[in-house]
Amino acid sequence: MKIIPIEEVLKPLINNPEIADVKFCVGKEGIEMYGHKTLLAVSSEMWKTMFFSGNWIEVQNKNRAKVDIPDVDPFAFKAVLEFSYTKKVTLNDDIVIEVLYAADKFLMPELKELCGEYLSKNLSSRNCLLLFDKALKFNEIELKNRAAEFFEE
Amino acid sequence: MSWENISIPVKILKPPKELEKPQVDRLWGLIRDAVEEIHQMNASSLSFEEIYWTCYSLVIGGKGDLLYERLIQIIGQHATKQADMISKISDEYFLVILNAKWQQFKLQHLMMQDIFMYLDQFYAKKKQKSPVFQLSMQQWREKVLLQENIKDRLLKMLLGLIHMERNSEVIDRVLMKSLIQMYLEVSNKELDFYTTEFEEKFLLTSARFYHVESQDFISSNTCGTYLKKVSLRLKEESFRVAHYLSKSTGPKLLKACEDENLKEHAKTLLSMESGCLEMIKRNKSDDLKLFYELFTRIEGGQDSIIEVLVDFVKAQGESVVKEETIKEKDPSDLISNVIGLRDRCEILLKKSFGNSPVLAKSINDACVYFINLNDRLPEYLCSYLDRKLRMAFKGMSEEETNLAMVRVLQIVRFLKNKDVFKKFYEHFLAKRLLSGRAISEELERLMISKIKQACGQQFTSKMEGMFLDMKLSNETIDGFKNYLSTSGSLEKLPSVDVNVRVLTQGFWPTLPAQKALLGEVLNSYCNIFTEYYLSAHNGRKLLWQYNIGTAEIQAQIGSRKYILVMSTYQLLALLLFNSTEKLSFKTILQSTQIPAYDLMRALQAMSLGKIKILKKSSRGKEINDDDIFTINRKFRSKLRRVKILAVLKSETEPERNRTREKIDEDRRLLIDAAIVRTMKARKVLMHNDLIIEVTKQLNSRFTPKTSLIKMRIENLIDRDYLERFENERRKYKYKA
Q1: At residue B184, does pLDDT exceed 80?
Q2: What sequence ranges are listed for the domain Cullin family profile (chain B) (predicted)?
Q3: Which end of chain A, N or C, is less surrounded by CB atoms within 10 Å?
């Protein structure tokens, strides 16, 4: 019998509006994205509290259909969803800093670690300028300093 | 440098750029408004995500300190406001309102705990400060619960309600639970608010309550009633703990109750008129059970019960085993009472003391004490069993018989001098086997198997030997009768149905072999038997014991014929009257050669008892040398078969002494053997060590007196088995 990995099973659910139970409006443009509370709660303390803490449930029930997240980049949020469902994430230089931000905010330590690994492996003379720019944007002093060191070399 | 070694980039986000003041003010404004809404119970208008983000932004913007400090401030202000409001509430609604406000406060700050999650995890934890919720609890504790108008009022009212409940009034347990739980919830590892502000005071009040109540109650009630009440009180307190107190209070509360209700009054409860001793005396097993259950809860309680119990068993035992209780030389009652007392102890142990091993041991020790008070008890036990076995435990079912045997053996187990029991048992068994009367072999064997279980294989080897002899004798006698009819010896002799028992010396209690003149006929039979037996068993020696034989004869007295059952000695005397009318005691003595004492008793049985075959010339019980005996021609009996008994009746004084002497002799031999065995192994030994070793070896059979062991040592020195050291007189050496 062929064994299907669980991430293959869950992949079709990512950002699938049909059976989702929560809608997000992500980024400055408020792009609509969809998720499943239970799956999100598994990898994030914040989602768990927000969706399932008994203290807020009455409050949340009223506007549970829609959650505004204006401060997170939609591509980064897509990566967050992907990781929540599959424990895997595809990172690239363009979004890694944004994903790192979201992972920190949503209290997702494993995802933060993956971003960290990516950065320590891929910081090179080729992309240090780009990352330097991003780091400036996100007030990342340490990353900025590291990239700058690289640049000077 | 190599980028491989960059630390985990989690740190990359920190330290972030400091936020500018206007931005901070704007964000804090959002937080302040949100908390205000929560405190106003208007949280439904709030967005979780928005507040969370605001808090997050402040923390990563380096404003964690500011946020944390300001939160303490507004939570404190809110708590103070609540305290002001609550403190003004009248007593009537005080607890209800306080509870409602507390529940509200708790919910509000649980919500805050949720939205300030990031603050807790990335600021408070790092700076080792309390999480937000704990902060809230602390504020409630300090601002509300310690407020002067609230603190004492709350405690007093809670304790008042518990007092009411103890006086059987119904109180709101849910409210109690919530408020007492509040003390627990505002406590933390550093500050056990529950214990210091509530529990300590509660325990003091409880102790005071029971102090007063118990004194009042014990003076006006019996011990049993008092204990039932205490038991009920303890149950109530357990329920109280389950319903609205902290679990950790349970043991402390129960201990306080037990101390006041039981420990304080322990002496009284043990000794009062209706107390422990009285319960034991009156067999009040249920009351006693409660007594035991309660007393085992207090320190030293079990020991004090044991003391009373052991004293009782010893005192009762002492009176039971007294010689004076024996009436008409029948020790059955004494033994029944001993068994009864032992049984009573067993029942108490089972019904009241939960079969506690500690109590069982104490009871056993007490039994050992009183059972060994009377030296003659082993003998009485045997005599008791003898009666029972002779009657084959008449009127008892198989089960009851078994139980009766087990009970006797329980007593046997407690004997220190089991060797005395053994000797007397053998003695009585021998008599039963030789009495010629029917015995229940099944019961005899059952009894012996039980003795074997209790005392070991060796203990019963002689008893089993006796049974073997009886079996072999039956075979021998069959062979002998066959021999008589085929050898033709019968033709010369009058027909006598001879029955001989061949007893192995060593198995049977030794009786002095006594000579007597058997007369021609019987003598011939004896000689033929001896000849027959020795031809089959070469090298053996037969010693005849006429003194324990029995006989049945046909006699014509007057016009009627009777079958007379009697002892061999009686038979020998009676046969003389076939040829003469009158005989003096002296003549009978000379003609039969029976020992005077035995003959006297034989004649007494025939002339003084119920069945008077002979007439004695003088009056009175004594028999003098010159007394003349004649056949009583007026003898009449309704029965055709007449038993002239009394010879093998109860243990006579000389017999008893003989058994005693035999026991002493056996003991001397055993002690000698033990001394020699020990010295042979150790070669050199100090006096005290030798005494200890010998006592230890013999303990399973009997408890040897030190003086006796000393005597035997002297004796062995005289016989050159041991010698003393020249310079050290208390040291012995084995002489090979």
Answers
A1: yes
A2: 376-607
A3: N
The complex's ipTM works out to 0.81
Give CA–CA dist B411/B342, Å, rounded.
Answer: 8
DSSP B609: S
Residues of A in contact with B19 (CB under 8 A): none
Of B9, B44, B56, the CB nearest to A62: B44
| Mean per-residue pLDDT, B543-570 | 84
B113–A55: do the CB atoms touch at under 8 Å? yes
Peptide linkage before B512 cis (omega within 30 of 0) = no
Looking at the complex, does the CB of residue B121 fall below 8 Å from at least one CB of chain A? yes
Cα B51 to Cα B214: distance, rounded to the nearest angstrom: 60
B9 vs A: CB within 8 A: yes
d(Cα B64, Cα B58) in Å, to the nearest integer?
6
> Above 80 in pLDDT, residue B234?
yes
Question: Measured between CB atoms, which of A45, A69, A101 is closest to B49?
Answer: A69
The predicted structure's pLDDT at residue B66: 92
Phi, psi of B330 (to 5 degrees): -105, 105
Q: What is the pTM of this model?
A: 0.69
The mean per-residue pLDDT over the stretch B704-713 comes to 88
CB atoms within 10 A of CB A128: 23
Q: Which of B249, B254, B239 is nearest to B297 (CA)?
A: B254
Q: Count CB atoms within 10 A of the CB of residue B191.
A: 13
Q: In the 8-state DSSP scheme, what is residue A80?
A: H
Backbone phi, then psi, for B186, in 5-degree steps?
A: -90, 0
Report pLDDT digits (tens) over B337-388.
Answer: 999 999 999 999 999 999 999 999 999 999 999 999 988 899 899 989 988 8
- Rounded alpha-carbon distances, angstroms, from residue B247 to A21, B177, B404: 42, 12, 52
* Average model confidence (pLDDT) across chain B: 87
Going by C-alpha positions, the residue among B679, B594, B726 that lies closest to residue B603 is B594
Q: Enumerate the residues of chain A whose CB falls inside 8 A of the CB of residue B52.
A: 46, 50
Burial class (CB in 10 A: 0-12, 13-18, 19+), B159: middle
Residue B437: closest CA among B600, B552, B575, B608:
B552
Best residue in A33, A105, A144 for a mutation probing chain B (most B CBs within 10 Å): A105
For the segment B141-165, the average pLDDT, to the nearest whole number, is 94
Which of the four pLDDT bands, split at 50, 70 and 90, describes residue B701? confident
> In which element (H, E) is residue B427 found?
helix B418-434
Q: What's CA A67's distance to the chain center, in Å?
A: 15
Scored b (16 or more CB within 10 A) or e, B291-301 reads bbbbbeebeeb
Q: Decide if pLDDT at B683 tops 80.
A: yes
